[in-house]
Write a structure and sequence with these properties.
The protein is 47% helix and 18% strand. By secondary structure, it is α+β, with helices and mostly antiparallel strands. A hairpin with a 3-residue loop joins β6 (194-195) and β7 (199-202). The longest helix is centred in the first third of the chain and has 25 residues, at 36-60. The protein is globular and about 55 Å long. Mean pLDDT is 85; it is low at 1-23.
Length: 234
């Protein structure tokens, strides 16, 4: 079952939905095999991606009616996870502009929401965008022009000592030192970002959204412990 099975749900209230509870139990059953690190990576991935889904479609609901949002959500759900990640990587600063474009195309040009989403997915697939995770003890907020970015401040010898900002794609590689307050979900770009396999880097990262660091760690660690206890008791 795809980690995005619940993408068709209306944003909000998903945690109390009986189907979501059943999916969480099924997930725990599926993950009884494999290492603890792999389990935590998958819990982390599911938690953040679900947060992003709710954030994306919740904001989209400010521009489109619920039927149109559900149609776009349903179209996206038919794609592979990698394509969904690419689509949801739309940076914060571009979101209003893109959603206004959807609104105009539907209301003025009578375009189908599913066709608009399909085209949007294909564009993001073509560029190979994805999602990464940057942690910081600082409260990084959008500037007065609405640009929300993480700027690089650490010189990297692999890039002629240019200043870089870093991100990971898995929980096990998440930078947990310096008492981070938030995890910033950022757009990844394979054409312009460097990587060593565990960490990737760029001079500036475009933020999609953020989630409180302690909330994510608590979710991952508590659920991993519960699943490991059930595994040990079998």
């Amino acid at each position: 079952m795809s980690g995005f099975e619940s993408i068709r749900k209306v944003a909000g209230g998903a945690a109390e939905d009986p189907k979501m509870v059943a999916e969480q139990e099924s997930f725990a059953e599926e993950e009884r095999e494999g290492s603890v690190e792999e389990l935590k990576d998958k819990l982390f991935d599911r938690y953040l991606k679900q947060q992003l889904i709710e954030d994306f479609f919740g904001d989209l609901g400010d521009y489109l009616d619920s039927d149109d949002v559900d149609e776009m959500r349903g179209e996206l759900a038919g794609y592979e996870d990698e394509d969904i990640y690419a689509t949801l990587s739309l940076p914060y600063e571009l979101r209003d502009r893109k959603f206004e474009e959807f609104q105009k195309e539907i209301e003025s040009n009578d375009k189908k929401p599913s066709d608009l989403m399909k085209k949007f997915i294909e564009v993001n697939k073509r560029y190979g965008f994805g999602l990464g995770y940057h942690t910081s003890p600082h409260d990084i907020r959008p500037d007065d022009k609405g640009h929300w970015t993480v700027k690089g401040f650490e010189k990297d010898h692999r890039d002629n000592d240019l200043s870089k900002a870093y991100y990971s794609t898995k929980y096990r590689h998440l930078f947990k030192n310096r008492d981070p307050k938030f995890i910033y979900i950022v757009r990844t770009d394979p054409d312009t970002h460097g990587t060593d396999g565990n960490w990737s880097r760029a001079g500036m990262l475009s933020v999609v959204t953020r989630v409180p660091f302690p909330d994510v760690v608590e979710y991952v660690e508590e659920n991993a412990r519960d699943i490991e206890k059930k595994k040990a008791g079998d």
